[in-house]
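Hi R.,

Here's the chain you asked about this morning:
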Amino acid sequence: MRIAGLLLALAIGLILVPPAIFLTRVWLRDGAQALPVPPAGANDVSRMSPGQTAEVVKLAEDPARAEEQIVALVRSARERRLPVAISGARHSMGGHTLSPGGVVLDMSGFDRMGLDESTRILTVGAGALWSQVIPFLDRRGLSVAVMQANNDFTVGGSLSVNCHGWQNDTPPISSTVESFRLVTASGEVVRCSRSENVELFSLALGGYGLFGVILDARLRVVPNDLYRAEAHTVDAVDYDRTYHELTGAGQEVGLAYGRVNVAHDGFLEKSIVTILRKVNPAGGPVPFAAPRPNALKRLVFRGQVGSAYGKSLRWRLERLVGETGGGLVSRNTLLNEPSDFFASRDADATDVLQEYFVPVARLGDFLGRARLVLLRHRPDLLNVTLRNVEADTDTVLRYAREEVFGVVMLLHQKLDAAAEAGMASLTRELIDAALACGGRYYLPYRPHATREQFLASYPESRVFFERKRLYDPEGVFQNQFFARYGGSPGAAP
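And here is the predicted structure, written out as tokens:
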């Protein structure tokens, strides 16, 4: 028995000591604090889009005064022929919030909120962060219907990129918008909805700030349900079939997403479908937890950087314990987590996001093509998440013409010209893979796509930019994204 006990202790030590030593080394090299997002007008979260703005305008604290300030700014910029870009949390990575030589309007703090509980309609300022919205709704037993998987984005930014998240079997956030108020290029405040200024409604949602300043929006919200997570490991080629079996009619699924293995063994060949099923609590309020740093979770995630062992360790742990460890968790608790918990703290490097949307039946095909591209380029790939998105019938510059799977990739790269050139080459090959599968890429990220790839992915952009020139003939609203893909006012896209 003593020998058996010693052997058991030795076996446990052999299992636990190597990861403990590895994670200790990760902790020793990890930065002590998150790197701040660069100031409005200077850059975005990628730290690879420097701007040279003439002026950054911060709004007054009083909402009525701030609204007057926005209107006056737009009218003045039009008269002075100064381009205006709109800034929120600055998490887009392609120059969408930057206007070199122009004016950047910093919407942070424009965050007034109100709720009509009888209709479950939230009215919220465009500068509000989801980290403010979620606790506000939680106190009333409600939650956000559609948003990104993290809370450190503004409402206006989310509407401008027409975001989506873990909300399974739903269209993008545009589907939850009842109406919004917009300051147009002429300095007029108009209301846009599916029955009023309909065309502007479809252009400004997912319009990257090119049709005006969204002041506030009326959003449909949903109950804050309690969930229990379950994880299913499947071959990546079978992900779409397994996902639809697990989320089909009558399954009471509240959120769902997938992870794809980025470790060497089984690279992009294995996946995990995580389903968060609704649970009816025995009584009392749904418990809510404020976001708090999870040091071990961060170390496991950051340990992947430059490490085959780290990627393998994370995959093993994710299969073993999953996202929540199988415990009960509220919808709001899941959504109320900032992205900077896991962000790079290396001043000489950055993490960049990419996303590709492919029709459901072509998911396995795309993953196979992407695998070959990634194996050839060997980037430092940290994460691949899968999310389904139903068809978008609201916006012009839409990424979901039908039900699609979004394939979200997070990559680590150095902040130098060689790394950026390598990432650009990789991205263009992945875009070609998505196009070959009848898909397209997502526009908020690094502007590596060629103009030809942009037009192939978004043929609707011809109409989009034609209407842009109609509604904004002087080109008041501009940014680096527009300069690259839209051309100057009057020019063909």
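One quick note: The chain has two domains: 55-223, 226-455.

Cheers,
M.
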